[in-house]
Design a protein that fits this description.
The chain is an all-alpha fold. The chain contains four helices and no strands. α2 crosses α3. The longest helix has 12 residues.
């Protein structure tokens, strides 16, 4: 599943619109919509988006022994 799809699912779960998420991030809905089209976000941006959604973002390699990198 790609990042924009995950963000849209998280918006639905948090019961906020993309426009509201953009507002919480301090950007316009048009600018955020463009970013969603490219799907290119840094890990710092994903953490900021998660915070705006009231969530946490975990981006790691999870190994069978429980190690996360």
């Amino acid at each position: 599943m790609d990042i924009p799809t995950k963000i849209r699912l998280a918006e639905t779960y948090a019961r906020i619109s993309e426009a509201e998420l953009a507002r919480r991030l301090g950007t316009s809905s048009q600018a955020f919509g463009q970013r969603m089209k490219t799907g290119k976000f840094t890990s710092d941006e994903l953490e900021t988006i998660a915070k705006a959604l009231g969530a946490t973002f975990s981006y790691s390699f999870d190994f069978p022994d429980g190690t996360k990198i």
